[in-house]
Amino acid sequence: MYAGGLIVFYVAAVAAFHPALGDEDALASGLFLGVMLAPTVGALLAYFFGPGVIQMGRPSRWILAGFAPTLVVFLATVLASATGLVDLHPDKLLAVAVALVPLSLYGSIFGLGEEIGWRGFMWPLLRGRYTFLKSSAITFVVWWAYHAPLVMLGWYGFGWGLPAFTVGLVGLVLFAGVVTDRSRSVWPSTVAHGSWNAFVASYFSTNGEIHDGLFSGSRVLLGEFGWLATGSMFLLGIVATWWHFRQPENRRPTR
């Protein structure tokens, strides 16, 4: 029920808006909402018409951990600017700092459309049956398959950025799994998702074509398809997973 609802709604959104191939502004249209709501639609169908359970959890201090991916990417990009790999525009620092929390929360509204399905439904289901690493591997495959068609059709990012995006996605799946296990809620991963979309994918960077951002330089390095962000996210996911294993909890999430 979950997979069927997700796929049907996803395909319906693409069919309804059918942007031109290679149109990088496609996700600014209704396609954006349709695609981001697909996991939640699947989860709700499984909840109302099947045995599915959605675990939202309660907000806690773990929400602060949701800002970690964006902050780690920021620090990595600042270090890269010190070596001359990219350019930092200090005059934009204050604006970005002021907007960090409000724009992250705004982005989280849209991120929740995915996170209810991923971390609210699918992750607890998997963790009730499998280990952390096996659950992460399955989540990665599903999440990658969800994004890859949009990338390859040129509607999300750019095709040759897919390898870097894949590396970053590994880290994001691991990190989101850790904070979801620890918080027993979808809220930290929702903030991470919203903050990433609001800043890493937008205000942090520009290649001269996308946005007048805090950093400028090569598209190979900047943005959510750039190696600075994806490499940083991968390392954060590895470190978070190592810590998670080193600091075991007495409880395990169950379905």
Automatic annotation (TrEMBL):
Keywords: Membrane, Transmembrane, Transmembrane helix. The chain crosses the membrane at residues 32-50, 62-81, 93-113, 125-146, 158-179, 186-205, 225-245. It comes from the Bacteria. Residues 103-199 form the CAAX prenyl protease 2/Lysostaphin resistance protein A-like domain. InterPro entries: MmRce1-like, Rce1/LyrA-like_dom. This is CAAX prenyl protease 2/Lysostaphin resistance protein A-like domain-containing protein.
